[in-house]
Automatic annotation (TrEMBL):
PANTHER family in the cross-refs: NUDIX HYDROLASE DOMAIN-CONTAINING PROTEIN, UDP/ADP-SUGAR PYROPHOSPHATASE
GO BP terms in the entry: nucleoside phosphate metabolic process; ribose phosphate metabolic process
GO terms of molecular function: hydrolase activity
Similarity-based family: Belongs to the Nudix hydrolase family. NudK subfamily.
Protein name: GDP-mannose pyrophosphatase
Enzymatic reactions: GDP-alpha-D-mannose + H2O = alpha-D-mannose 1-phosphate + GMP + 2 H(+)
Keywords recorded for this protein, A-Z: Hydrolase
Length: 185
């Protein structure tokens, strides 16, 4: 059905091998038979945690992001280690970054946040039954943790104060879940 859209890999080479990211350069055959080059970032994937308190507020982070040279408001998130179970990663990241654990976990969805230039996928998890504790930040990781009403998050998204794509999407999912419009399996 989609054969008229499919590109076929002819050759593949690693263009860059960094500590965190790898860049791939592939030669592909287009549907019309012509050849071209595709460059893309290889990423192991990450988890995003949507920590929801019983009062409807959410747990958030403020973190400086070097590429854009500013502090962003985000949900807790982190890279999936090689061979690591996605849910185990979500539990680890929530504890490390915020000090919280959760008694209830549900997978929300998978998103592909940069399909034009990366194979990265983000696994979103809803975390409830939050219990505070001591956080265990990675070496070189600096962030603030705070609690905010979901209504504030929606306002911040609308006003452009929250622009991180995983946080925007997570906030819209939470709005639907809390309102009872979308049920999780």
């Amino acid at each position: 059905m989609d054969s008229h859209l499919i590109e076929t890999r002819i050759a593949s080479a690693e263009a860059y091998d960094g500590d965190f990211l790898k860049v791939q350069r592939d030669t592909v055959q287009l549907p019309d038979g012509k050849a071209t080059t595709r460059e893309y970032i290889k990423h192991p994937g990450a988890v995003v945690i949507l920590p929801l308190f019983e009062d409807g507020s959410v747990l958030l982070e403020r973190q400086y992001r070097y590429p854009l040279e500013r502090v962003f408001i985000e949900y807790p998130a982190g890279k999936i280690d090689s061979g690591e179970d996605h849910l185990d990663c979500a539990k680890r990241e929530l504890l490390e970054e915020t000090g919280y654990t959760a008694t209830e976990w549900q997978h929300v969805c998978t998103i592909h946040n940069a399909i034009a230039y990366s194979d990265e996928h983000l696994e979103l998890y809803l975390a409830r039954g939050l219990v505070g504790g001591e956080r265990k930040l990675d070496d070189g990781e600096f962030l603030d943790v705070f609690k905010a009403p979901l209504a504030d998050m929606l306002s911040w998204v609308r006003e452009g104060k929250v622009t991180d794509v995983k946080t925007v999407i997570g906030t819209f999912w939470l709005e639907k879940i809390v309102a009872g419009d979308w049920k999780l399996p």
